[in-house]
Specification:
Blueprint (H helix, E strand, L loop, with lengths): L9 H23 L3 H22 L3 H19 L5 H11 L23 H18 L11 H25 L19
Helix pairs in contact: 2-5, 3-5, 3-6
Amino acid sequence: MDAPEPDQTPFEAVSAQTSRLGRIYQSYLDKSTPYAAYRWIGTTVLLLLFFLRIVLAQGWYIVCYSLGIYLLNLFLAFLQPKIDPSLTQDEGLEDGDAGSSLPTKKDEEFRPFIRRLPEFKFWHSSTRAIAISFFCTWFSIFNVPVFWPVLVVYFLILFSLTMRRQIQHMIKYRYVPFSFGKARYDQRSGH
């Protein structure tokens, strides 16, 4: 008998459904973009649920440590400028152009601070990492027995050293990655 040929192969059907779900997910991400405070509140609640799970289950410390290292890495990328002034200054010295640093005088060009990792991508990556870590805590294969105080001390040392280095870099190249505390000018008066 002659059976009608299917319109799609199974691979094409799965691929079509995956791309449809990806578009739906992306539309929800796009709709959540202007609500930064609510997004971060949701991420904080998810992080607190994760910590509660770790404390109550008394395990999965290596998952928690890995999440902490990843979040620290994301935070450092969030604090750094897209174009590192130390690299551009080094390149300028090689080319004989030492004037490529950030403006320090009134008549020099103003260049706004552009982050290496934008806020939305920082939030999205953080939330996704916390959700994956929370998911991992429900499987005993990820519950590797470790002495957790060593991980806490090592993380605190790593955090303090990297943040000290980042703050020294910000002071040396005179950039502030946050907008609070900076002068705001009224657009109508031109000042």
